[in-house]
Amino acid sequence: MHRRRLARFILLLVLLWPTALLADDFRDITVEGKAPADYVQSDLGQSWAVVIGIDDYEKVRRLTYAVEDAKAVTEMLEQRGFKVTTLYDKQATRRAILRELGDKLLEKVGEQDRVVVFFAGHGETRKLKGGKQLGYLLPVQGEQEGLSETGIDMGAIRNLADALPAKHVLFLMDVCYGGVAGQQFRDLPSVNEAYLKQITRERGRQLITAGGADQRAMEGPEWGHSVFTFYVLEGISKGLADLNHDGIIPVSELYSYLDSRVFAAAQLRGHVQRPELWAMAAEKGEFVFLTKGLPGTAANVTATADDVEQERERLAKERQQLEADRDRLAEERRKLAEDERRAEETSGAGVQTAKAPAYETPRTLKSEITGKDRTPMRLVPAGPFTMGYNDESADERPAHTVHLDAFYMDAYEVTINKYLQFMQATKREPPGFWHEDHVIKYDQRPVIGVSWQDADAYCRWNGKRLPTEAEWEKAARGTDARKYPWGNDRPTSHHANFDRCCGWKGYGPLLQVGSLEMGKSPYGIHDLAGNAWEWTADWYDERYYRDSPDRNPKGPASGKEKVIRGGSWISGQLRIRTSDRLFGAPTLRLDDVGFRCVMDAPK
Question: Which of 90, 129, 183, 379 has CA 20 to 30 A from 264's CA?
Fold first, then answer.
């Protein structure tokens, strides 16, 4: 583990060193006697944009920052003279998107004009036999199991782009997928007069995606956006993507900036995300952003000496932190070697695994019982614990003390074979992603594709109930406010099944319940981080913690979405924290959401 982290440290020192400060200065280049920015601007027609952002999906997992990303991009483009059409959430139907990109743009765009299309939402990749991939955008009513009927495939996007009379068209897709129709590029071209004439005069169609097919697009409070959109905004608005300081940002230059910054930010969090640039037409023209506002606009955002100095200082601090991390890792390695030596001298048994702190169990209650469905259940004793976390998402604040009565929780997520017994007895329809082969092949893996109603019905049928959100969190983190069920150590594949990302379907990425002994909670409960998200009983309210009861809280009286906890195989490490909150409509059936049950302990 230490070797991997040290390798990542060395990689980040290279990637985070400011590309803009190392680039050659091309401000002396002229094109037909004009500065590059003046030459490009003299050839521009009108600028158009369609900006789409979807958080509130109806049939797939909700997003947090997509609409916020779209609104920020809209503001940035409008400041630069673009005429922007927006489609947010319910407006972003399949029909509305195709109509804006087709009929409406065809009516108003001229041959010298340029068009930007920005999409923040879900993207999906379908892998076909023979290795070919098809990429899809999901509109607000899109379904993972019905991509052909409900999604927008990238072939259609390419056809729409080709049909537009505009000279230059740029798609910025804040999604991660493959199957893009076109040619992929990575190299930054040589900048000279011939290159600038070519990209300005020739027709061009480019597309930048936030990542590849098997990568997850990161978003989070540290950026207030997705990481991809954050650097799009930084690179264009502050001129930081103008790597050679010539006053213009061609798409190839913007991509080079995004490639290094997004990739490095993901590596810092132990994740892989690398943007991709695609040419969707044979012509060599490129979309170009100017680093100053167009005439008649309020924008004038050329990167100043102060901007560059601020960027230098920020990256210097990051480098200083990385060096401190390197020293800390060296000290950890030294201590680990010393511990191994002492352990071998005293017992010969090798390094002992750190144990979770002991928790007192009332003598009148058994520490373990067996439920009606023959699932072991662990006791979570009565008493207070810290719920919430002040340093992460707004809906986790404030951290506060909650007192709970004692209860028993299933030691494992409900498995396929347990759910099969329920289906056979009640004649309930199978969950999503179900196949008869799963009963034999995956019988000890958690059942997925269950709606909240399915989960609630199963628990009640077995004389149990779904846990409240507070019960779930205490079972996961204990009374010492730990970040993960096992403690505060950074998660690894020995602790949780997480961050496996894309390209999977059905039960393939799930592990048999209880496979990761190191990931148990203080009460001996397995898989409360990763593997499958878990439904809880509570309705979701972002502001609920601000005035919730301090004893046995049961969530808001009503709502539209139910709380989901614990993260899944596709989640990054931020999502498998014990305090993280997700939510979904009770009717949702997703390929990474399951559940477990609880029972009240005797008084």
Answer: 183
**142: nearest Cα among 51, 209, 61, 71:** 61
Q: Of 509, 482, 484, which Cα lies nearest the Cα of 497? A: 509
Give the pLDDT means over successive 10-residue stretches in the chain (603 positions): 42 41 52 81 89 92 90 95 96 95 93 95 78 83 87 88 92 78 58 80 90 75 84 91 86 90 77 85 87 44 50 58 58 63 51 40 76 95 95 90 97 96 95 84 93 97 97 97 95 92 76 95 97 97 94 95 94 92 92 96 89
* Token digits of residue 124: 């999906």
Q: What share of the chain is helix, strand, coil (3-state, %, to 5)?
A: 35, 20, 45
- Predicted TM-score (pTM) of this structure: 0.56
In angstroms, the CA 20 to CA 17 distance is 9
| Residue 586 DSSP one-character state | T
Q: From 496, 409, 419, 412, select the one nearest 450 (Cα to Cα).
A: 419
Mean of per-residue pLDDT scores for the chain: 83
The whole-number pLDDT of residue 330 equals 60
The helix/strand/coil state of 327 is helix
H or E element at residue 368: strand 368-370
Amino acid type, 313: E
Contact call for residues 179 and 209 (beta carbons, < 8 A): no
- CA 248 to each of CA 83, 198, 511: distance values in angstroms, whole numbers, following the listed order: 20, 14, 50
The whole-number pLDDT of residue 6 equals 42
3-state secondary structure of 206: strand
DSSP 484: B
Residues 6+ apart with CB under 8 A from 226: 65, 66, 69, 120, 174, 210, 217, 218, 219
Beta-carbon contacts of 342 under 8 Å, excluding residues fewer than 6 positions away, are none
Q: Are 255 and 208 in contact (CB under 8 A)?
A: yes
Domain boundaries, the chain: 45-242+250-289, 368-600
98 CB neighbour count, 10 Å cutoff: 15
CA distance 592 to 578: 17
Was domain 45-242+250-289 assigned CATH 3.40.50.1000?
Answer: no
* pLDDT for res 303: 44
Q: Which of 459, 488, 448, 450 is nearest to 578 (CA)?
A: 488
Q: What whole-number distance in Å separates Cα of residue 410 and Cα of residue 421?
A: 17
Q: What is the 3-state secondary structure (H, E, C) of 72-124?
A: HHHHHHHHCCCEEEEEEHHHCCHHHHHHHHHHHHHHHCCCCCEEEEEEECCEE
Contact in structure between 62 and 281 (CB atoms under 8 Å): no
**148 burial level (CB within 10 Å; 0-12, 13-18, 19+):** exposed
Q: How far is CA 418 from CA 21, 512, 514, 598, in A?
A: 60, 13, 15, 15
**Nearest in space to 23 (alpha carbons), one of 315, 305, 245:** 245
| Distance, CA of 516 to CA of 530 (rounded, Å) | 11
End-to-end CA distance of the chain: 46
The span from the CA of 271 to the CA of 73, in Å, is: 25
Structure tokens that stand for 172 in this block = 């910025």
Q: What is the topology classification, in CATH, of domain 368-600? A: paralog of FGE (formylglycine-generating enzyme) (3.90.1580)
Among 124, 3, 119, 136, smallest CA distance to 69 is for 119
